[in-house]
Amino acid sequence: MAPTDFEALNTGFAESRPKDIIRHAFEQHSTIGVSFSGAEDVILVDMAVKLNPNADIFTLDTGRLHPETYRFIEEVSKHYGIRIDVRTPEQASLQSFVKEKGLYSFFEDGHQECCGIRKITPLRQKLSTLDAWITGQRKDQSPTRSDVNIVEADTTFKGLSGNLTKYNPLANWTSSQVWEYIRLFDVPFNKLHEQGFTSIGCEPCTRPVLPNQHEREGRWWWEEATHKECGLHAGNIISKG
Ligand code: SF4
Question: Which end of the chain has fewer CB atoms at under 10 Å, N or C?
């Protein structure tokens, strides 16, 4: 697909409902996965499963998630009667990383290496089996996400045939709209949200935020705001320079 086609698609999708964007994505790609982080992007699971009960839903188990998140992933699986493809880090590289640097090296030399092993490599492997993926990224989540498109060529990873398309159906939605959907459709949600967590990631690298803080300020709070991506959406950082 040429870049100009993405531009036209984004213009066309500007007023579209997320569910209609997901429907379009399903129609366009035979191998497409829905990324589920264990947080409020659960609404993507809700929409996707209603469109296709056999939708490929996957999540990354870094080994460092909150107990509440593990329970929530299981709850979502049971609630929708689906099997979630839980991707785990490659054992040998994780063992040698932990042996060499311990369990909390990210507080000293940044989160990239740990995220690389626990998230990026498993994600790369998963995406190499797909033509497209769907994520819960929204513009209002952080400074690194303010330019997120509804659909774009993913230039960070490679898909099954080389090209990979990334859909962000919630790009133009606000946090309020997401929670309105959760309440309206009785969608299960991670209990950490009741404890002040807005953005949910690994336990050591996530903390609740105060009122009026960007939700991703609770992630890697010891690092600069413009670097707060784990590499799943590395293009956001590149585009910010
Ligand atoms: S968020 Fe923290 S614990 Fe999780 S993979 Fe990244 S650096 Fe490691």
Answer: C
